[in-house]
Structures
1.
Amino acid sequence: MINVESIYWLIGLLFVGWAFLIARDATHPRRWGSSAFWGLLGLCFFYGTAVEAKTAPAWVLGIAVLVLVALASTGLLGDGRSKTTSEEQRTVHAGKFGNKLFIPALTLPVVTVIIVLLAPVLKIGSTPLIDPTHTTLVALGIGAIAAAVVGVAILRPKNKLAPVFEGRRILETIGWAALLPQMLSTLGILFTQAGVGTAVGTLAKGVLPSGSLIAAVVVYCVGMFIFTVLMGNGFAAFPIMTAAIGWPVLVQGFHGNPAIVFAIGMLAGFCGTLCTPMAANFNLVPSALLEMKNKYGVITAQVATGVPLLAANIALMYFLAFHHA
Amino acid sequence: MLVLIGVLLVIVGFAIRLNPLLVVTISGIVTALLGGMSPLEILNAFGSGFSSSRSVTIFVVVLPVIGLIERFGLQEQAKALISKLARLTTGRVLLGYLVIRQITAALGLTSIGGHAQTVRPLVFPMAEGAALRRYGTVPDKVREKIKGHSAAADNVGVFFGEDVFVAVGSILLITTFVDTTYGLHLEPLQLAVWAIPTAICAFLIHGFRLLRLDRTLDAAVKEARAEETAAAHVSPAGGMA
């Protein structure tokens, strides 16, 4: 069975490979710091397998993660600006290959979707070929490999490892932001364990005037929004706001339809995801990936959708979830 | 209540633009100490937090193929293709992508797009290509705005599309949480159906903004040109293409 751990090992292998390329690059301005960062990050992906299986202590990985943060925040990590084609060369290539260039880009989603759809019937004996709990991740990993192979076959780069070299170029433009989503998810775990959720829930209850339906709907939705902004995702906000207001006040007190209250409540949280740097993989990684000067530029573009949509969710919940006399 | 200091640290840290990695780490450690966790428990939390969240770094596997096709001019080709289609403006390109992204996400095909998979190699170059056709050259400020909106179209599309699909993480989280905590029996399908009104509102609000984006860009280009000409002490060159 191809399980999700093999995909994490693929990621680890890529990081270690890139660390090796950086170590060999004498012109790199932060050669050893960068190589150490990406190499250690890669090793963490391998070691994580043992942590998940509970065969190795997690604190070792904890120390490694703190070392990564130290490397990144003390300026030891830099962009080596690895060699690639010039804009003129690219225009010439584009003229030569034309729309064939889109084939590898399309291979990726097509292969991914085919594998996702076929996964339930792909079996060796009675064991599924692909880990049924992480089908999409495994499919995406296989899709990416297939797309790289198709790309090399069509474009015929002089060096067959060109995808690895070019991948390093993009990775280095992303830099430390590549690690941020995982760190934020850890922060969410620490917040929950330390009781931040209960504290916010108590605060939310405190501001709620009793007996007003519209006030309760507003506090629930705005609470989901704010808490999502602070934690970076609606998943962490949902249990807390639902335990504080959604269930006791909106469903039990005002007899709201639970499916509507909870579905729209979660989506009110998603409006918060549009507005927060804490949702790094949606808002900060893309600005690094697009090489934007302002790393909050994606959020700037989204706030004017997130806030009106929160208002829309409040209205939808108020009018759809309750029987109005 | 003391643990909320950690939340405050995050806000202050982001506001004064410290390295976010450092902000998050320090806030995590402070919060955990205030919450009474021991140093070993904190290290364990960092370790297990890292290993259980490795899936968010999956975007790394697509970098090699995207890098390769960029090397051979994918972005240039995407621009060239769009610049031939006279009716496509930046706003309309992004609106088209929003539609595709939202519908495919609603069908459960979230991995079909994404910032590494589609926005960098295809969506942004096409949006920029449309702007190049309209304005001739694109000032940096305007390019920055197009980048932001390219990523935004992807996020809005996937966030408010995926919840219409029943087997998505957030729907399953709701049903598991409320079913075990409150003894309800909510079907994922009931929740998915009630995600549709919000999905429609999201499309209307963001779609409206994208249709207006072209006018905003017109004004921004004009402004940037005026600044350039003022800086160069040259008399204004009249109307623009």
2.
Amino acid sequence: MLGYILKRLLSAIPVLLGISIIVFLIMAMIPGDPATAILGSYATPENVEKLNRDLGLDKPLFKRYFIWLGNILQGDFGRSYSLNKNVIDEVIERFGATLILAGTSFIMCSLIGICAGVLSSAKQFKLTDKLITFIVLLGISIPSFFLGMMMILLFAVHLRWFPVSGMWPIYGARDLTALISHLALPASALAVVATGVIARLSRSAMLEILRQDFIRTARAKGLDEKTVIWRHALRAAMVSILPILGIQAGFVLSGAVYIEMVFQWPGVGRMLVDAILKRDILLVQGGVVFVAACYVIFNIAVDVAQHLLDPRIKA
Amino acid sequence: MALLDYTRRAMLAAGTATAIALSAISLSAQTPDDVLVVGQIAEPKALDPAAVTAVNDFRILMNLYDGLVRYKDGTLEVEPALATSWDISDDGTVYTFSLRQDVKFHDGSDFNADAVKFNFDRMLDEAHPYHNTGPFPLSFFFSAIVSVEVVDSMTVKFTLNAPYAPFLSNLAYPTGLIVSPDAVAKHGTDFGRNPSGTGAFKFGEWRSNEAVVVEANSGHWEGAPKLQAVVFRPITDANTRTAEMLAGGIDMMVEVPPVALSKFQGDGYTLHEQAGPHVWFLILNAKEGPFSDVRVRQAANYAINKEAIVNDVLEGTAAVAAGPTPPAFAWAYNNSLEPYPYNPDKARQLISEAGADGAELTFYVTEGGSGMLDPVAMGTAIQADLQAVGLKVNIETYEWNTFLGEVNPGLEGKADMAEMAWMTNDPDTLPFLALRTEAWPDKGGFNSGYYSNSKVDELLEAARASTDQNERARLYKDMQTIVQEDAPWVFVANWKQNAVTSDRVSSFSLQPSFFLLLNNVDKN
Amino acid sequence: MIGFIKLLSRNRLSLAGLVVIILVIFTALITPILPISDPDVIDTKNRFKTPFTTDALLGTDHLGRDLMSRLLWGTRLSLAVGFCAACIAALIGSALGIIAGFYASRVDNIIMRGIDMLMAFPYILLALAIVAALGPGLFNALIAVAIVNIPFFARNIRGVTLGITHKEYIDAARLSGMTDTRIIITEVLPNVFPVIVIAMSTTVGWMILETAGLSFLGLGSQPPQADLGSMLGEARAALITSPYTSVVPGAMILIIVMAINLLGDGIRDALDPRLKSGVLSSPRPRTLVANYNEAKNLDRSELLSVSKLRTQFHIGKQNYKAVDGVSIYAKKGACLGIIGESGSGKSVTALSIMGLVSSPPGIITGGYVNYKGSNLIHTNDQELQSLRGNKISYVFQDPLSSLHPLYTVQKQLEEAIKAHQPVSQEEVYQRSIELLKSVRIPNPEQRAKDYPHQLSGGMRQRVNIAMALANDPEIIIADEPTTALDVTVQAQILSLFRELTRERGLAIIFITHDFGVVSQICDEVAVMYAGKIVEYGPSEMILNHPAHPYTSRLIGCVPELGKGKRELASIDGLPPMVDRLGHGCAFAPRCEKTISECLNNDIKLKNINANTQVRCLKPEIHL
């Protein structure tokens, strides 16, 4: 198992390298440069040129890439010119916030989605199933930024149950209670779409399993229906649900961009959007590679879990 | 079974947590007394006045630092600040400032002539040991400075390479704010996150993307501010900002979106408005295409219903612009100038005279940007108006930085018109940078529409060199008349900056400079 | 195509989705000729008019444009964009997927690493960066959205392609000297096409949502052009003051995406080959019972009897009478065989006893099952569950699929014990080891830790039998337990059953299609044909003197020892479809002795001697 993990980690390196090259190329293709972004209306060619020189952007692209790569290998992700801060500090700080948001949301959507899918499949064709199917479809079909804003209006502005935005109270204790109250709306808004997808796919995975012979065996053994559904069927269905969770984790991470913007969550998604718009190439580079690395690691974890779950596949 | 149990437990836990959260929140919905929470439009880049360019950042900086001079309350006229008085040599090239006594930076070091010299040398002298704490994008505001000399500890002398009328006004601009040399030496490139000035508030903390907190400076030379602290919260999304204001999460919000104004009409809120030195215009490509004909350019000015844009699209948050100079520069503004009236018939007539019927035009529109107001909606309205007089307009929208990258190098070969807006601190800046023949893009200016009129060039050069304000006023007024007639731009709007405060906030007013001054503001 | 729509229409929600989407597309197509106002005409005086207040039915937007008109035009554009983006993504993604799957090894590795890169890149940011790089415009947004969806197609299609490249017909095509390109086009593509269609149907909705998301970030169509995404994006500024301007395009997106998703589900079901016969449905815990009259005064002394059992399958409008009035009796210490061809209803009879027929589509419509005086068709769920695996247990045909693949043998055995007996963990372990010993599994402590896939076929079936024995049952119902096993193992399992009957005094109901098996272990045998018993009596009697023509033909198929198995198909013709049975003898069309009476009336099961019953007008009487 350890060898397998190591092998997977090694194979992630070319992927991350490739991503960093893609980012560099795309950023180079985008018109406008950081100097224009900084100078705004005052970006005369002369000012732009001088500023680019100050920022060290006058070197050719590939040269800059290799300088960046060399620095990365020494643990130096460079300095963001739009934030005037070390890239790695900013990325780690912001990524923590995203992790809290996306992580909570991911746990929510996994639990609720799987439960809804299981219930829906166990009660196939009954009202519960139809209701769940409908709600799930509704969830999938609403743009999350729209949903987020509507939740703010209802729960934060009218009912005042939750704060409108941000991650921590501006004044007062930064404890778990404060975090949860700030987290509730954005995490729910972010979870809705993924919950729907997971519920739908869990339902069909469960339907597939419930037709299997071993479920009939379990029933013929006289096991109670709860055990049949939640242990025998779900356990077997998890084999095909797990990879879905892996993919959905990526979607949640991506979807966090909108939610972070709407809820002013100090996360890495918003940081990256800003960084792209400000042509802050080092920040984009550092952020994307970091996010991608986490995604890759998470997927390795999913595969490992898959191996642990299913004795039939051996690494 | 196991999973069912977990789910139940998880739901129970989530339920409990929600209940706790609900009870906690009802307690902390209101912001504390004596602390003003301001909803900003973006995270500041840095708190180093020499390093930033955005109005958003200036709003914080003006409260942390003082300059040698500043704008008098409610005007764009210069008055003493850290300098108590100054002399200008007859030829207009030597400025000698007497500095205020007993002023200390927040870090405890003294404010004196050495500190002033340090500030300008840091920006302008590439050999200065702390020049590497830059870059200093707006240092060209002071490019006329040849040398800064310390005469004695409380006197400092600036020598310019030529008479430069906007010099004092530029000193009042945030780029001219004075930072503590000790703090720069101590923090180096991190000074922008550890600022130290002489202002009414001193830096408290900066939590990335959450808040910048500044605290009262009890030892300020004008006396301590009334507020204990100010929290600047960056809330990028306008809807979220509005929702925060409605929910009581912030006490003050700037740049209220026009559509949200109706929400703040009632009791509980005060709406503030202040016209400023802003002009929103369309650059017309005078070098090629239909707009090379002055009649078509004038026709565009007649065809566009500016009243509708200003009153409906912008809900009255702007006024119709008459010419290139905003009325906020009262002394330099030509009052006799009347805006082009909305007259589609006249426009059609001019167009057919010029033979430009049915011409196809490319129109660069931006998604948003500094001072651009509601550029897509405005662009769409303009497109429809021009369509109505027989000009077929194709819009191309760009995100702001791309847009600047396309527009600043000039429109030639790409587009016929482009949106643009400027906020300046001196009547000289915009026309000098964007209307002179010498300011064509290939010569390093912003005259992206290639307007050229030698008379205008002469007037602008003369106004810049003159130190007599009356003389300058006359020159600018003449310039405005000519430019309006030549119509290198479509003059659309002058923005009235707005802000909303909750009824707990008092003694607040907006400044024509677009700065946010909070030292007199009170909250109860 | 008609068949496809028929399949589709079986799912009413999908049909609704189809109707809605057709309506939407139709409206979009005729929009240019509808009498609606110009979508781009600006009237800033009348901005943000609420719906139904002015001429504009749905109100006006921030520039006073008619929202109704913009909605229709916007829908038109968005549908086109969503569809195009889905097509582009499907085309490129599927091509990559097929190539990766077909060539595998290095090509696969390179392509999939590339796909991994796209996947690991947060897709919204990728789309944002692409649009920023390509410049503005809906077309570029379309490309961006298509690119970020390529991995989805590539991964799905690659999986399917990998699955079929090792199929025989691909190998055959290779051997016949076809070029790779031709194989891909003629053999691979048709097989992965349904998957592509399914993937597309699920992504079109996504695409529309994603373009909406891009215009949230300010990257979408060029004004004044309306598409649903940019309408939503533009309306967002007024979300707080005039929410309906967002709700109008938002609702349309919702309707389209929901309809497409519902339709996509339907298409998926219709194209899934396994679902041709019915909707993918999960069986209920117990077979449904319909139109049921409670049987009274059941004989308490009987161990187990089945009377006039009727079990049907309702699929669509068809009604398959799988079991049509079957009565059988199980006796202690004896083995009853039920024999017949596939589809004769023998397994359904066996499964009906404990309510294990999959339902839907199975329904029990009549008869009763008497277990010591209680009717198992009509007991409450609790009681049935307490009998299942306890007094009456099952052994199924396929030993591998009947075991849970992810649990060890030990766990599955222990579970069976604990379901009915409150015993300590220690004891339950000992018991399960004993059970394994009792079915002659060597080295049981080791085997107990194995997973089913690690065992041989015979071992698996022994585990199944051990599980059936876990609670000392009175009756074991074995549904073709040896069919999936090879001949030598078959013999071992049969002898195991024989011993169990003898040693434990069990009653066994043994389902089989093989008279050879009957001859080895059954005391009595019931021969089934088309849902009915055609002959029932002591097995020795019937084997030696079959009375029904069908029985004798079946016996003719028995393999003789050492000569391998002959096929049952050696009876001319096929068993009838149980959904269109007429009157008269169901075997008549295949029978050589058919007379006209055979076809007219239902034929009764009659005693031809004290022990044997036959359903035939002209039974072969051996004296």
